[in-house]
Design goal:
Blueprint: E1 3-7, E2 10-13, H1 14-26, H2 32-43, H3 54-66, E3 99-100, H4 103-106, E4 110-113, H5 120-130, E5 142-149, E6 152-161, H6 167-173, H7 177-183, E7 187-195, E8 199-200, H8 204-224, E9 230-235, H9 243-247, E10 251-255, E11 274-279, H10 284-288
Parallel strand pairs: 3-8, 7-9
Antiparallel strand pairs: 1-2, 4-5, 5-6, 6-7, 9-11, 10-11
Helix pairs in contact: 2-3
């Protein structure tokens, strides 16, 4: 049956739309949120960790409503946008005594995933204060790490869901559009990497990157129910050379277009960035190119 539209990789047919209309008619007194939850359950549309994709269903139903395919009940409540009104992370005080040594003299290092822990506030504050881009609250799947030496924080890593479209990465992997839509969740984006400025240890950054990528997939699977097969990041060449990534065997994939993910003008509106990638398994191309059975 011909698709009316394709949303997040799912073809929505006339029969699907009729089913949604029947769902809405059968529950005239429930909210849009409740309807999206019911649709997610009816379609078996869930994340890898088993949680229903009700937010995706809600966006789909809204798109169908705006296009005139269905009629949703009136909005009952518009909650405040927590991202628009989110307070900036507060500064944090840590031991900033300069540390100048080599890797051998640094001592044991511990990587701790701090999302949803008591140490997440510390992570947010360190990134806000000491990273040139500051702190931005991730949306979707993400992990946060603090690297410790004893009771002193040494570095921070932030990882999040990867952009859906990224030309240099997509060409390097060689996946089809359908495979990309299905498997982009298996790619993680390194949004922040910070070695605290008073930690002066040669080769520390590449050493930390090498250790970080070895644990990333396992930690992601424990929280989200699926592994990670490829990691990527952006580097602003006017500011940095990406030396630590290259020293840790990350691969240069190309440059961004400078247009951003929501571009409507097809003209550059932000700095060009180098795209670097790191396969987490030798079979990454095969795994990322798999399509639905």
């Amino acid at each position: 049956m011909e698709a009316v539209l394709t949303y997040r990789g799912r073809c929505v047919t006339v029969a699907d739309i009729e089913g949604i209309r029947e769902l809405v008619a059968a529950h005239p007194d429930v909210s849009r949120r409740a309807l999206s939850q019911k649709l997610a359950r009816a379609w078996g549309w869930s994340q890898a960790n088993g949680h229903p994709c009700d937010m995706v269903c809600r966006s789909l139903m809204l798109a169908l409503h705006r296009a005139g395919h269905i009629e949703l009940p009136a909005v009952r409540y518009t909650p405040p946008n927590p991202l628009a009104k989110r307070e900036r992370p507060a500064p944090v005080e840590v031991d900033a005594t300069p540390m100048c040594t080599d890797l051998a003299g640094l001592g044991p290092l511990e990587f701790r995933q701090v999302r949803r822990t008591s140490e997440e506030r510390l992570f947010n504050g360190l990134i806000e204060t000491h990273h040139y881009l500051g702190y931005v609250q991730p949306v979707g799947e993400h992990l946060k790490y603090i690297v410790w030496m004893g009771d002193r924080p040494v570095a921070c890593f932030a990882w999040s869901s990867a952009p859906r479209h990224l030309g240099p990465r997509d060409r390097y992997i060689g996946w089809s559009a359908a495979a990309r839509r299905r498997n982009v969740r298996l790619v993680a984006y390194n949004t922040r990497f910070l070695v605290l400025p008073w930690i002066r240890v040669p080769h520390l950054a590449s050493h930390l990157l090498g250790r970080m990528v070895r644990m990333l997939s396992g930690d992601w699977e424990r929280l989200y129910g699926h592994p990670i097969h490829f990691a990527e990041t952006f580097v602003e060449p006017e500011r940095f050379k990406g030396t630590c990534y290259r020293a840790a065997n990350w691969v240069y994939l190309g440059q961004t277009t400078g247009r951003g993910k929501d571009d409507q003008t097809h003209r550059p509106n932000r700095p060009l960035k180098d795209v670097l990638g790191y396969p987490l398994t030798r079979r990454f191309r095969d795994l990322l190119s798999e399509q639905a059975p």
